[in-house]
Design goal:
Layout (H helix, E strand, L loop, with lengths): L7 H24 L6 H14 L3 E2 L12 E4 L2 E3 L14 E10 L2 E10 L5 H18 L8 H13 L4 E2 L5 E3 L6 E5 L16 E4 L2 E3 L5 E3 L6 E3 L5 E3 L2 E4 L7 E2 L5
Antiparallel strand pairs: 1-4, 2-4, 3-12, 4-5, 6-10, 7-8, 7-9, 9-14, 10-13, 11-12, 14-15
Helix pairs in contact: 1-2, 3-4
Amino acid sequence: MSVIIKSEREIELMREAGNILAIVHEELEKFIKPGITTLDIDKKADELIRSYGCIPSFLNYNGFPASICVSVNEQVVHGIPNKNTILKDGDIVSLDAGVIYKGYQSDAARTWAVGEISREAGKLIEVTKQSFYEGIKHAKAGNHLYEISAAIQDYVESFGFSIVRDLVGHGIGTDMHEEPQIPNFRQKKRGMRLEAGMTFAIEPMVNAGRYDVYWNDDNWTVVTEDGSLSAHYENTILITEDDEPEVLSIRK
């Protein structure tokens, strides 16, 4: 497995890409409300990304037809924005977006409430987000990769939710998907040893019910098999020389 260690210059470019992506997500959160379509969200995201001199990472990536992924309720990830899916009060919506800034990528996802949501939906969003932070407590130089994976699963399951097994996080840099793959669930091995300069996209995908998923007929949209709600939280991180990782896709 060949994992690319980033130079200081590369890290600076990824830091700027991440800061821009953080702003995009902040603006999209303000835009979310009942009555808008998922296509409206995609158009807004494309406009925001390009306004900062970036390119949407996802547009035409392996044929994906939109600038971001917009997944509603039981959709886990990779929802294709369209004019017929209208957000309504009580929905939850996951936005997965990526930007390319001067050749370098950042990838991040957030799940937002649409109007007033159920207590269970709110808890699912909260646990999914916190599971990311529980995982990156172990994202330190000298630790092993799958310590992150185990911590995410343990936290999620302590609340009775389940972690998706069919999709994983990944390395990131000039390519959106670089080595290594990063499961959000326990592995039999410890995984590679982490080194400063590695950059990862850590992305727990959490279901309120069982972890089983399937792909819709569009070959993109991943949906919970039991119809339960799903939430997604992701950031691009940097392994540092210090005791803590740096989260690149949260505004400084």
